[in-house]
Specification:
- The chain is of the alpha/beta class and 645 residues long.
- It has three domains: 149 residues, no CATH class; 113 residues, NAD(P)-binding Rossmann-like Domain (Rossmann fold, 3-Layer(aba) Sandwich), CATH 3.40.50; 352 residues, 3-Layer(aba) Sandwich (Rossmann fold), CATH 3.40.50.
- It has 23 helices and 23 strands.
- The strands form five sheets. It has a nine-stranded mixed beta sheet with strand order 10-9-8-11-12-13-18-23-22, sandwiched between helices. A seven-stranded mixed beta sheet has the order 3-4-2-1-5-6-7, with helices on both faces. Strands 15-21-20 form a three-stranded parallel beta sheet.
- Helix 2 packs across helix 4, helix 11 crosses helix 18 and helix 15 packs parallel to helix 16.
- The longest helix is centred in the N-terminal third of the chain and has 29 residues.
- The chain starts with a helix and ends with a helix.
- The N terminus and C terminus are likely disordered.
């Protein structure tokens, strides 16, 4: 018995080591035998005798000639260039055409050589039999190949959600790979439920728990690229209630555009939980960038870099990238040069937004017509413990940008603001509200430049935001840190935010504050739980002490609020874009702002905390700190830094 197994394994190894040329040489005589057997079987089926000697005695020589003709025809159709491992529809069609030609050739021989005495239907039967035989042998060879490759491989069982065309393609790709073994389909279509597709049964989603237990499944693969965001959200929410990892195939746009293949799986991100169907952009609202010279400050940041990508796609005359970070500037410059069309110029400029003379020189040199001002310090705890630098950059830096734009006659300047600027409880929010006041005051002084602001909440995936932190903590095995169980935040994706900022900038008439529709608020605690579940883990708490990852509440960080707002006062007015609103903000009197900023520059230079707090309360409506700045700065530095990590 052992000797037989050894011989069998030796044969498997020998076959696996054969080159394609040698396998082709084996397949040719096999096809010859199949043709000969098919000829005999066609006659047998036609006359109902196992050995009709009265026919074969006259046509025995065809058992020798037909295989030679068949191999020649098959070779001319390229059948021996096909790889058995990837036998598909096009290969089968080619085999069918070759067999049809061989059958026609047999019919021609029988017609001109009446001595063969072949029944007229024999060539038709012969063509069908040889076609089925060749498909059968090649399918067996393909199955043997995959078995040979996977016989020592332990594949992870997975469930495929979606039994449509994409699901079938995904299963086919996974069968040829070595990582996953699809064991079942899930589909909401009741017409498919209970049927067998690609050798797997289709189940309703309600049976997922029993399937997970039966097959010991830890992964579910979504294969529905054409679903709307709302439908995907509902499915992901359903799956996120279970401790299974969820991955998805690329979107329909990526598949059709050739940017990805069906088997390029990625983890389902929390953006799938946003109930936000994308709104098509309004082409007319890109007038501020199309064919214009556009400058983006903070071009290497999360928002700034995405603004650059989307501006580049619209077709500006030139993009001027302005940033103080050498590496960030280098990265976005290289990326843009690889994706923009030749006529679009890309200029990378190192510099600080606090240097007004430098800004004016750059604007004049490149003939800048539109500025998107996205440069800012944005991390609440860091700015809270570095208030002077935070206000210097966010407020005085914006003042330098506004004055440079005004002095050089820039047509439009758009400030990227934040919901934390509304009744802020932290220095970062207050500094961004000061930046808004700078643009509003600049508009009061000039009619040459249109100044406007765009205010929105958190973006998913930006540097230092909660989502990348949760992902890192989950990857490290926890714990996941949440500041407070009742914290809620508004979220949108970076590409959507950037696209709306560009369109809002084109609608500005002077001094406008635009608000982006942020959708429904998201509970940070619920977000953490769903991210843990979508990663295939269970939450460890009092109800489940054997869970994988614990959620720890650390308390609100300095200056942090339970929820954010977008409106300072008054209602939000509709605009021509359904996701962009206009706020009616009444800024303080111009002289108050001018005097306040003169004092602001002085107190920053001498680092006078009491005076800084006084100016913030004077200029920023609703500013209130739960803790004095002096007290915060008096805390141990390690504790301050720990809150930001």
């Amino acid at each position: 018995m052992k000797q037989q197994l050894f011989s069998l394994n030796a044969f498997h190894h020998w076959f696996d080591e054969l080159s394609r040329r040698h396998k082709r040489r084996i397949l040719m005589p096999v096809d010859g035998v199949l043709v000969a057997l098919s000829f005999w079987l066609a006659i047998t089926l036609r006359v109902g005798e196992w050995w009709p000697n009265w026919i074969l005695a006259r046509s025995w020589w065809m058992l020798l000639v037909l295989p030679v003709l068949g191999i020649a025809i098959f070779h001319s159709f390229g059948l021996y260039r096909f790889a058995l491992r990837s036998l598909g529809r096009h290969d089968i069609q080619a085999i069918g055409r070759a067999c049809a030609l061989l059958a026609l050739l047999l019919a021609g021989i029988a017609y001109f050589d009446t001595r063969l005495f072949l029944p007229r239907s024999t060539p038709v039967i012969f063509g069908l039999v040889v076609f089925l035989a060749m498909i059968g042998v090649r399918s067996a060879g393909r199955n043997y190949y995959h078995w040979l490759k996977n016989r020592d491989v332990v594949k992870e069982p997975v469930i495929v959600y979606g039994a449509g065309a994409s699901g079938i393609q995904l299963v086919s790709a996974l069968d040829a790979a070595r990582e996953f073994q699809p064991v079942a389909f899930l589909d909401d279509d009741k017409g498919l439920q209970g049927s067998l597709i690609a050798g797997r049964r289709v189940y309703p989603p309600s049976q997922i728990d029993s399937l997970v237990q039966k097959f010991d499944v830890k992964n579910v693969l979504l294969a529905m690229p054409s679903l709307s965001r709302l439908q995907r959200k509902q499915i992901v929410e359903f799956l996120s209630e279970r401790s299974i990892q969820v991955q998805t195939i690329p979107s329909l746009v990526e598949l059709v555009g050739g940017f990805a293949t069906i088997d390029k799986l990625r983890e389902v991100g929390v953006h799938e939980l946003l109930e936000r169907d994308p709104v098509d952009p309004i082409i007319d609202l890109f007038s501020s960038v199309r064919g214009r010279v556009v400058m983006v400050t903070g071009a290497g940041g999360s928002i700034g870099s995405e603004l650059c990508r989307q501006i580049a796609a619209v077709g500006p005359a030139k993009i001027v990238l302005f940033d103080m970070s050498e590496y960030a500037l280098y990265s976005i410059e290289n990326e843009l040069r690889s994706i923009v069309d030749a006529p679009v110029e890309v200029e990378a400029v190192l510099g600080s937004i606090c240097a007004q003379t430098r800004l004016e020189r750059v604007i004049r040199l490149h003939g800048v017509q539109t500025i998107y001002h996205a440069a800012a310090y944005k991390h609440v705890p860091l700015v809270e413990f570095n208030p002077f630098e935070g206000v210097r950059n966010n407020a005085l830096g914006t003042l330098a940008v506004a004055r440079a734009a005004e002095n050089e006659g820039v047509e439009r300047a758009i400030l990227v603001s934040t919901d934390k600027a509304v009744r802020p409880t932290n220095v970062m929010g207050a500094s961004k509200r000061l930046a808004e006041l700078v643009f509003q005051r600049a508009q009061q002084r000039t009619t040459k430049t249109i100044f406007s602001m765009v205010r929105f909440g958190n973006v998913m995936g930006s540097s230092g935001s909660v989502i990348p932190r949760f992902q890192r903590q989950i990857a490290e095995g926890g714990p996941v840190t949440v500041t407070h169980p009742d914290v809620i935040r508004y979220f949108m994706t970076i590409p959507e935010a950037a696209q709306l900022v560009i369109q809002a900038g084109s609608m500005g008439e002077g001094g406008d504050v635009f608000l982006l529709d942020m959708g429904n608020p998201v509970s940070i605690l619920d977000l953490a739980k769903r991210m843990i579940h979508l990663s295939g883990f269970e939450v460890k708490d009092g109800e489940n002490i054997h869970g994988d990852i614990e959620i720890v509440f650390t308390g609100l960080r300095p200056g942090e609020k339970l929820f954010e707002e977008l409106l300072v006062e008054g209602p939000a007015l509709k605009t021509q874009h359904p996701k962009i609103m206009r706020s009616v903000d009444i800024p303080p009197e111009g002289e108050v702002v001018d005097t306040g900023f003169e004092r602001l520059a002085e107190v920053i230079e001498r680092e006078d905390l009491a005076a800084l707090k006084s100016i913030l309360k004077l200029l920023v409506e609703g500013y209130s700190a739960e803790k004095n700045v002096e007290e915060r700065l008096g805390e141990p530095p390690n504790a301050a830094l720990r809150a930001t990590i």
